[in-house]
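Bug report

Summary: structure tokens for Beta-glucosidase-related glycosidase differ between web form and batch submission.
Environment: batch mode, default settings.
Steps: 1) Submit the sequence below via batch. 2) Compare with the web form result.

Sequence submitted:
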Amino acid sequence: MERKDTDKLSFVLSNAAECTVLLKKSGQFPLDKPGRIAAYGAGLRYTIKGGTGSGEVNSKETFTIEQGLERAGFIIASKNWLDAYDEVRKQAKKQFFKELKAQAKAKHENAIMYSMGKTMKEPDHDIEITKVCDTAVYVVSRNSGEGSDREVLEGDVKLSKSEIRDILLLNKIYDRFMLVLNVGGVVDLSPVMEVKDILLLSQLGTDCGAILADILLGKQNPSGKLTTTWAEFKEYSAEGTFGDWNDNRYKEGIYVGYRYFDTFKKTALFPFGFGLSYTTFETKVSDVKANKDTLTCEVLVKNTGSCSGKEVVQVYLSVPEDKLDQPYQQLVCYAKTPLLERNAECRLEMSFRLSDFASYDEESESYVLEKGRYVIRVGNSSVDTKIAAAAILEETVTTLKTRNCLGKPDFTDIKSEHSEPLPIPEGIVIFTLTADDFEKREVFFDNEVSVDSRIKNLTDEELSYMQIGNFDPNAKGLSIIGNAATHLAGAAGETTSQLVNKGIRPLIMADGPAGIRISLKYYEEGENQYDAGNKGMMPESMLEMMGPVTAFIAKLIVGGKKIPRNAVIKEHSATMIPIGTAIAQSFNTELAEALGDIVGEEMEKFGVHLWLAPALNIHRSILCGRNFEYYSEDPLVSGEVAAAITRGVQKHKRCGTTIKHYAANNAETNRYCNNSQVSERAMREIYLRGFDICIRKSQPKAVMTSYNLLNGIHTSEHRGLIEDVLRGEFGFKGIVMTDWVMTIMTSSKSKYRNALSDEVAKAGGELFMPGTKKDYERVLKALKDGTLSRKQLEINASRLIRTIDEFYAD
Ligand code: BGC
């Protein structure tokens, strides 16, 4: 039975503290009851529910943190400060848009495109703070979104001078003070490390304040762990390049996130996997078993503190170094306890297969486990573990023979220094494994694909339609990014409706990942739906940049229609769920699946077939503007969360996920034409592994390629990525679509061109999105010229029709 919207929202709200991370605690919180509270910071009234861009979900009602606290019974004793800050903010915003316009002009860029994803730096001010009661909070907010990366500037990655001054003062003058972070990515907290209570609230959707109130009052206990290392900015690896307009060189290779920090002995402020709780836990490994190459750790967790809570247990593996250099350790499995009352205990069983963590050897073009000693550590963060067992592999094992197919960067990856293995403490169980303990896997490349009989009879024109999104040959304006669907207002796109008379029905696609992105207001005309308000048509940030007049004109030129006089305006909205990073921070796959289930339920209700989420790119740099949509710097976490959400969504009939952006899409600067240069090994061990895990565990219905190039070839035109790796190696059975290619959005100053529809078709991608007449003509021309074979188009169309059939099957 379909749940009520209020039930779905209350499920999100009552579980959201699992997504928050308690970074520091003094014992002064939780509070006994709500009362007077001094609340400061931009986050109070300018709360960020989630970032900007296609990941921004339009919810009917959103509350600020100020409202949330008040609704929970708190009396805000610092209204004067908040009012004064409003004025500072208003002026700063005016200035911000003025500067953006000037910058765009100086760079000869279109101001609206230039502004995409750019967010204002937190302004400095001199509003005075005095002590007005016993308890205070300061909420730091940061926003970002697709189109732009973050900057190492005050008010963005760095705290502003005013923030530092006020936070340190509050920490000094208030008896109880909590620093709260309403952010989607890392902020360098090094100047305020003396603060005794710090909560990473994150961005949780509709009512962040209600969740904060619950946490302040101990009604919910934070139980999230960091999925990305939080450090002083200068500590992050500067080996590779980030933010270059044309080429970004991933020279750091496999040393991403904690793999870099641990191996190169860097210190984090808060390490990967770290998070406190109002209570405390004791963790003891009670047993480790080996069954062939599957190792199972049995762990007892006891709540030793004063209130109920949940703990996350993490298992790390250190791989021996023989021919290949290795990171100090990698996460191989994790589990979360149920809610444990005081003194309660539980037993967790966690398993992993050694072969799933094989290294990629470029020389032999295969995945290998090198001979030597494998060490298993168990703990509750990457820096707080104990050795639980070891396994000796007597000979090097090839777990999968494949072929190099991802191209070559113009450098070689950095290597770590070979380190002597640490001694194994006495009494630790040691297993011995041989090659017989490993399953033999094989890859079958270039499998014959059977062509559907319905496809055989299609004309070249009709076949070309299938390759392009829902392009209407009679349409006047352009389809707009993120809003190219006609059956559901505000949905991102569709497959063709031109062949409905041939029994080929369209698939409707809507964005995520923080819920379903659709227009709030709409009207209907026959089977079609149109947006009836600016909200939902474009990311709010871009509309804000345009101002009301330009926004209105933009709506006309991008194909929006004038709302008919007699139109009946209706409203609908979807439930917001926490941003991707926050969901991952819960380290709770059941919760992730339940959130996917909510999305699936609403997809059924709105008639969405494909959700354009989850997004599981790696947090390679804390500067990526879309990190909030993504899960982690670790591929296991990314893959597990994406798989859990996919299972939740795909429980629902006619609903599928589209995992994105495949692959190495780790920056937003010149995103349409940026070339990620990455080694075959780093691609396979870091950037592709999450996709592999998700596909193996949940078989999502679709994959969206990324805008960027990989080693000089657009990922959407990359046969190695699509056919060899995705289909051949990972066993992906669904359809592959491009990200929303829009020529007008592309900078003319790029070294590389945009992705092209005929090249995408040649590479085995089924859909060029969102689809324009030009893209269609290009495919048709290539077909006529003979540069694109009809056979390839027939294969692409057959795969698409097979997926469409699955959606429409009774
Ligand atoms: C984004 C995708 C999104 C698509 C459709 C693109 O700009 O990169 O993540 O799914 O638009 O809205």
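Above is the batch result. After comparison, the two runs are identical; trailing whitespace caused the diff. The two ends are 19 Å apart (CA to CA). The chain has three domains: 21-223, 275-442, 453-518+575-808.
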